[in-house]
């Protein structure tokens, strides 16, 4: 057995090693890329087919997304064939065959924007920061539009923490004019800290002048002289624009610095083949000083109050690129809109919450007051947290337009709810008035009570913009109902009195056999049917004082706050009928011979003493 295990042991070990190798390969395929694969330059932004706009490159974004620590960016911009890629390789201590591609032909080597895949880890203010080095396509190369160059410059300006402006020999007018976008960004965002948000601090501008001799002047003095205003006696528009940029750059003096770097060697086409010992010693010394300067001023990129890791930076890049590609030319206003979008959403949310807290419908003046209060709070929040100084007005107008849209919707909803509520109350009152028109026992007091209650409940419950129109409808309906009721009231009451007199005749003669009641009922009936028709017209009857007395008596009997006879008429009649029936059939029998105090009807055969014959 022991010999068998020994025979199979090498095979088992080999199989285990194969499985481990397969698992490792699978893990490498599914996990992070090999660090050696990241030791190269990656494009993050490429030109489109027309070479006018920019598009993202996924392979460069994937290299960025894997970074988990805060990111800082050192970008280099400048004219084409000015040595930007070689400079970056020098800062990264890379040879030309390993680092960024370096070209010596007339066309530019770098297309779009590239980054070095492996960031340089630095300690900045006690925190670990991953510094990405960024190479850009040079200006003024063949076959490109100025708009494309502006987009490259603008994107590098926004992304960079340190922006190295690589210029050969001197600072030209065209070099200053290209800083217009950087100046606009600085004026919009620099030092703009409101509430809990910071948009982003503009890049530290590093003027890098590649020049051997400065003729007794420091490079800072040369840059300062180049930034002084140029006389413009002829009113040249271009000179005015450049002078404005000069003024803004002078204000931004604490955000820029200058550095000179001599030529590394006279034979520039062979620089990539040279080692440090073959380069000019002064150049090597200044290069190391430049590295230290960049390390001292680099800061992590902060956007809206927080640092960015790889995933955040890739998302930020996508937002900025979308804004810069918007329209025919890149604008600072589009960037301001991007950063103010979240703030606009918060301001609108504050406004909506205030307006939604009001139960509709409400009076128009109350809604207007709430709108003004909510609008004021939203504007205060926007003023505290918005980004941009000059272009923020556009965002403010957009906020105003959005608030107006929401307010219009609230007005429509309030009008609808007001119409719905007023229509319901109007219909209730209309039904109430129709019911009062057909009372079994007409009562002016009951009609007036229902009329007043309807009017008061409508005035109290009907609110909002529809109230005025419904009040007019309500007044017309109530007036019409009152006129119709009064017209029918006298006729109904007269008919009821005639009917009542006939009923009393029947009751007095056949039910209770009360002779006086029958006589009074006959007198009332004859009076209503003959005398009034012979001597009074219908109109004069209703205005006669005697009729008023009858009406007052009728109102007292028919309706009072305690007893509504119209509602209880049938139960009362049933109860009285039952009482009369009980009294007639089971009431106490009178003793024979007792006289009656009232003239009741008696049968003659009961009073006769004669015996009945068969």
Automatic annotation (TrEMBL):
One of its GO terms (molecular function) is GTP binding. SUPFAM superfamilies: Interferon-induced guanylate-binding protein 1 (GBP1), C-terminal domain, P-loop containing nucleoside triphosphate hydrolases. Residues 1-30 form the signal peptide. Residues 68-181 form the GB1/RHD3-type G domain. InterPro entries: G_GB1_RHD3_dom, Guanylate-bd/ATL_C, Guanylate-bd_C_sf, Guanylate-bd_N, P-loop_NTPase. Keywords: GTP-binding, Hydrolase, Membrane, Nucleotide-binding, Signal, Transmembrane, Transmembrane helix. The chain crosses the membrane at residues 568-586. The keyword NADP does not apply. It comes from the Eukaryota. PANTHER family: GUANYLATE BINDING PROTEIN. Belongs to the TRAFAC class dynamin-like GTPase superfamily. GB1/RHD3 GTPase family. This is GB1/RHD3-type G domain-containing protein. It comes from Sorghum bicolor.
